[in-house]
Design goal:
Rossmann fold; 4-stranded parallel β-sheet; alpha/beta; 3-stranded parallel β-sheet; 7 strands; 2 domains
């Protein structure tokens, strides 16, 4: 392995998803985990957005200065904080939602984007709209939050989270038969894959196209 990808996560449960998805690249994956920012943004009203931006910027620059050839940020909220925020490193940074946005924008028809973390909705949808505008596309997509589930992930109850999310996705599919469903957060992908398999209709998620994007991003 002669290339290194530094991965910044908001929770350790994301590591396995990335290890499996990027295993074929032959690159070393270095994982950095910081759940504190998501927790503080959602619970501390005195914590300013500029403080959140500075924290994410410092983390990403630290990873770049530690020898990574490319950086993958797996938290959509962290990527939203980096929006229009210049970095002092030349290392390419990929947000996990970027190849996913390409899939969303390439679909013609109504779509529903599901979230469990309400704090990520505004930033993710703003990034999606910016991506769509930059590529000249106008996807028909709405956002919906499935409340009461994200805290399970943060408490380490991933199995219960996946089980309950699976049922909620099935309910959404039954009530929205005319819309393509996707999940916006990496923590939702296991339940989405199970639901898609049982329903016979794929549920879009953030791991789509990720390996190809990271392969393109790594220096030759």
């Amino acid at each position: 392995m002669d290339k290194t990808i530094g991965c910044l996560h908001a929770h350790h449960s994301n590591i396995g998803h990335i290890d499996r998805t990027l295993a074929g690249l032959g690159a070393e994956l270095l994982h950095y985990v910081d759940p504190g920012l998501v927790r503080r943004v959602s619970r501390d009203p005195s914590f300013r957005q500029e403080d959140a931006r500075r924290r994410v910027q410092d983390q990403v620059e630290w990873i770049g200065q530690s020898g990574a050839d490319a950086i993958l940020v797996t938290c959509t909220q962290y990527m939203a904080e980096l929006q229009d925020n210049p970095l002092s490193i030349a290392v390419p940074v990929v947000g996990i939602d970027e190849p996913f946005f390409d899939s969303v924008c390439g679909f013609e028809g109504p779509q529903l984007l599901l979230f469990t973390n309400r704090a990520t909705v505004e930033g993710t949808m703003a990034r999606l709209q910016a991506y769509a505008s930059a590529t000249g596309r106008r996807p028909d997509v709405d956002a919906r939050v499935l409340d009461g589930l994200f805290d399970l992930v943060m408490r380490g109850e991933q199995e219960r989270h996946d089980r309950e999310l699976f049922e909620r996705i099935r309910e959404q599919a039954a009530s929205e038969p005319g819309r393509r469903l996707s999940v916006a957060q990496l923590s939702m992908t296991a339940a989405a894959d199970r639901a898609g398999s049982e329903l016979g209709t794929p549920i879009g998620h953030a791991l789509e196209g990720l390996a190809a994007r990271m392969k393109e991003t790594l220096p030759r």
